[in-house]
Amino acid sequence: MTTVLLGVSGGIAAYKAAEIVRALQKRDYDVRVVMTSNAAQFVSPLTFAALSHHEALVDEFDCPGDPIPHITLGQGCDLFLIAPATANVVAKLAAGIADDLLTSTALACTAPVMVAPAMNVHMYEKAAVQENLATLRRRGITVLDAASGYQACGDTGPGRLPEPEQIAAVVEEHFHRQDALPSWTGKKVVITAGPTVEPIDAVRFVSNYSSGKMGYALAAEAARRGADVALVSGPVTLKAPEGVQLVPVKTAREMLAACEEAFVAADVFIASAAVADFRPESPSDSKIKKGSSQEGQLSYVRLVENPDILAAMGAKKRPGQRVVGFAAETDNVVGYGQQKLASKHADMIVANQVGENKGFGADDNQAFLITENNVEELPLMAKQQLASVILDRIEQF
Ligand code: CTP
After folding, report:
1. Residue 37 is part of which domain span?
2. Are residues 207 and 136 in the same domain?
3. Peptide bond into 67 cis (omega under 30)
4. Ligand 1 centroid, distance to 33 Cα (angstroms)
5. Are residues 193 and 277 in the same domain?
6. Structural element, H or E, at residue 353
7. pLDDT tens digits for 110-127?
8. Are residues 248 and 384 both part of a single domain?
9. Which of 86, 272, 283, 392 could form a disulfide with 199 if both were Cys (CB 3.0 to 4.6 A apart)?
């Protein structure tokens, strides 16, 4: 049975949360409730326990038999719906604060999170609240628009919790969309990610700022759809997504060797790695002296070009195999992307602008999807969301 965890925080709209439980149950979801202590001032946990047939939890330290309820709750649900979400809870979610059971659960949650803000109109319209909601949206959290109208405090305007039936309908649509995802079971996907690191000597290297986030998001999404995923990754600080086979590499040549082996059986190859274009020709086993007056010293390190992994896979693509690359550009994004599509024999290039505060290391990305006959401009979105759109398009080739 699909489980929806309902997080209730402390605003007057908490009374409507009881109706949300009923509306979700009507759609055959198993509903569990976690509340803030402020919410428990508005509606008794007993009300939610009686409706949901599960204890409604409030206090992290008052959950007999479960020493880590935030983990149990956060990992035991298919969706975490926080409704109503007060301005305070929205701010805590945006800042990653986990100082009670509801917010700790949100941080530990591995399921999608949906937030229905509800508060006074003047609070809702404050820049701090709107920026926090935008932060949540950027991170892939679904934020419902507040309804507009007469408020309990006497003001009129946006900030009301949408009707329970409407919220339940959004939840239902979320699950329908998930069920409609085409299955990638049986598909083999190879993804390159992160930077490559090219040694100069025993203590120095040439590399770049790639965080690996895009490639790891793609790997997680492909695995979620049931694919058999090999993630050929340069050194990054990220943990390999669950169910993904991590192939750790350091240099471009190691990455190429790993890809050549995996590409033979691959259905889809996605090159998201920021491969160092050049490497020192003869890395030294000992530390090179920094003197600059003669060859063999640091200023004389000679660079040679690295193999182009995407171009190598594109060149040996068999019918039915799909090859997708990225293009990180500071200018002429679409033009250079189209050139790379042709020169590397890719089926699609995901082109995006890089530069100050854009691209490398960010959690979101604004990309163009370039194919032979089309250029699709996507809005700014979280990398997880972009990963999902990229896989949807590959599906359509
Ligand atoms: N790529 C690759 N191997 C390389 C260089 C790039 O596989 N040695 C792949 C990247 O993973 C990406 C695409 O090629 O999918 C484009 O990478 P990018 O760095 O934007 O372009 P380059 O080909 O390196 O060209 P330039 O630096 O001149 O823009």
Report:
1. 3-150+158-180
2. no
3. no
4. 48
5. yes
6. strand 348-353
7. 899 999 999 999 999 999
8. yes
9. 283
